[in-house]
Write a structure and sequence with these properties.
There is one protein chain. By secondary structure, the protein is of the alpha+beta class. The protein folds into three domains: 2-271, no CATH class; 283-342; 350-497, Histidine kinase-like ATPase, C-terminal domain (Heat Shock Protein 90, 2-Layer Sandwich). It is 71% helix and 9% strand. It has helices spanning 2-56, 60-87, 91-120, 124-131, 136-186, 190-214, 229-308, 314-342, 355-365, 367-373, 390-407, 465-475, and strands spanning 350-353, 376-381, 386-389, 415-422, 426-433, 479-484, 490-497. The strands form two sheets. Strands 2-4-5-7-6 form a five-stranded mixed sheet, with helices on one face. Strands 1-3 form a two-stranded antiparallel sheet. A hairpin with a 3-residue loop joins β4 and β5. α1 (2-56) packs parallel to α3 (91-120), α1 (2-56) runs parallel beside α7 (229-308) and α2 packs antiparallel against α3 (91-120). The termini are far apart.
Length: 499
């Protein structure tokens, strides 16, 4: 009888130990990775919030602080990913982890190479456009979060499976224990039944609580008073659950703050949209109202010039000529205003474009002045086609070529070089001349509307050409800049992203 008691007790203890080992394995393989994943999700949330704060920052010091925070959290995420990769043993988890790592690296690269540089140079509108739901950074960010959610689901499913298996094992072992104990009861071995039932109950309590926690219910805790390793494991499990609850609450608060910031940004965007529409309507109205009297002035001046020019003295003819020139300049100015305002509404019609043909057409249209001034042109385009907005590219190149022709007027041997080369993620064009050049201190002001570095008496123009070119490129996610020095010509560059 003593041997039967010992045998029943041994069966119960062996079964309980087996279940305990299975639960420990589940905690190590699934619950612990879930905790790490939760920490990683919190860091990802911090990075999202800090990135938007960077876009709203007013000073360079704030931006640097945000960038330092982002770098620190990025490093922590890398450590989390390495830890998860070491703990995963199944191909499914490793695949989901690799997919998230690739998506996160893509988002980080776009954020660091595209979004933050735009924010640093105060190109907030372009940065917000890239970060929007339809922007490249917003799309990459959403893809990374989807991959992270898929990884989380995979881990939770694995945990549920293991916990269910542990529960089944517990139920099965409980049945075995009951059967064995019944035999023992018949033989008078009550002690073995009591001991085994106590252990099975404790293990089952831990298993059920772990299942609830795996579904996201962090309010659960388990109470076990066995005085052994199971009680120690239950206490550790309760500690881990409390930490996960604290982490989830912190993440919810971060998400709430992020939603508030997004709502504020949407409100600002809505106000800006209304103001923009009002400004465009005002521009159209004023431009139309100016054109009518302008046509009258120009018409009367033309009539005086044709019919009565011989009757006027030299001073009067000079004044009449100035009226006609000023009228033409004002007409050009109105057209530039309308053109600049229409760019915000015009639909981008994308197609495969041959830049060599565009440049040839521009030069053909200016062949007379090119021949008269003896301007030498050199065109070197290293690619045949580009997928872009044809009218926008034509307008930008025409403005740059016209400026090169205009500002090389006083050069004895004018020479203009037009190049195009393909970069890994963009197409770059450049127009260089050997004209008067400019001081780089005034570089940024070149692209402001109606800003000129020379007097209109010296070189004609409205000062809107480069502003229009910049707006065309901004709409396509491109950029424009220049390099020059006084008397040494100017070199203008434009870049268009590959679409």
């Amino acid at each position: 009888m003593i041997f039967l008691i010992v045998g029943v007790g041994a069966v119960g203890i062996h079964t309980a130990k087996s279940i305990e080992e299975r639960l420990k394995d589940t905690v190590e393989r699934d619950v612990k990775p879930s905790y790490i994943l939760g920490e990683m999700e919190r860091k990802v949330g911090f990075i999202r919030a800090t990135t938007f704060s960077h876009l709203l920052a007013k000073s360079e010091l704030q931006m640097r602080s945000y960038e330092s925070d982002i770098d620190g959290w990025e490093s922590e995420i890398d450590n989390f990913l390495d830890s998860l990769e070491r703990s995963f043993t199944t191909q499914v988890k490793l695949k989901k982890l690799a997919e998230f790592r690739v998506a996160w690296m893509k988002y980080s690269r776009l954020r660091d190479q595209k979004l933050l540089p735009l924010s640093q140079v105060n190109r907030k509108d372009e940065a917000l456009a890239l970060a929007s739901e339809s922007g490249a950074v917003g799309i990459a960010e959403r893809d990374a979060f989807n991959r992270l959610e898929e990884l989380n689901i995979t881990i939770v499913d694995a945990a549920n499976f293991r916990l269910a298996l542990a529960s089944q094992t517990s139920a099965s072992s409980e049945s075995i224990l009951v059967s064995t104990t019944l035999v023992a009861i018949l033989l008078g071995l009550l002690f073995g039944l009591y001991q085994s039932s106590q252990i099975a109950s404790a293990v089952n309590a831990v298993s059920k609580t772990a299942q609830l926690v795996a579904t996201g219910d962090f309010e659960q805790s388990v109470t076990v008073r066995t005085g052994d390793e199971i009680e120690s494991m239950a206490n550790s499990f309760n500690t881990m659950t409390a930490k996960m609850k604290k982490m989830v609450l912190a993440e919810r608060e971060t998400a709430r703050q992020l939603r508030d910031e997004i709502d504020e940004r949407k409100l600002i965007e809505a106000v800006l949209k209304v103001k923009n529409e009002e400004l465009q309507a005002f521009t159209y109205t004023v431009s139309h109202d100016l054109k009518s009297p302008l046509w009258g002035i120009d018409g009367y001046a033309e009539e005086l010039h044709k019919q009565h020019s011989n009757e006027l003295d030299e001073r009067a003819r000079f004044c009449l000529d100035q009226i006609m020139v000023a009228s033409k300049n004002l007409e050009n100015l109105i057209e530039d205003i309308l053109q600049y305002s229409r760019l915000s509404e015009e639909k981008l019609s994308l197609a495969d474009v041959k830049p060599q043909e565009i440049i040839s057409a521009i030069l053909d249209g200016r062949s007379r002045i090119i021949d008269e001034r003896g301007i030498k042109f050199s065109v070197d385009i290293s690619f045949s086609t580009i997928y872009t907005w044809q009218r926008g590219l034509t307008q930008v190149l025409a403005n740059l070529i016209d400026n090169a022709i205009k500002y090389s007027r006083c050069t004895k041997y004018p020479y203009i070089l037009i190049t195009g080369r393909e970069l890994p993620d963009a197409y770059q064009f450049s127009v260089a001349d050997n004209g008067i050049g400019f001081d780089m201190r005034y570089h940024d002001r070149l692209f402001e509307l109606f800003h000129r570095l020379v007097r209109q008496e010296e070189f004609e123009g409205t000062g809107a050409g480069l502003a229009i070119a910049k707006k065309v490129l901004d709409r396509q996610g491109g950029r424009i800049w220049a390099e020059s020095q006084p008397g040494a010509g100017a070199h203008f560059f434009i870049e268009l992203p590959k679409l």
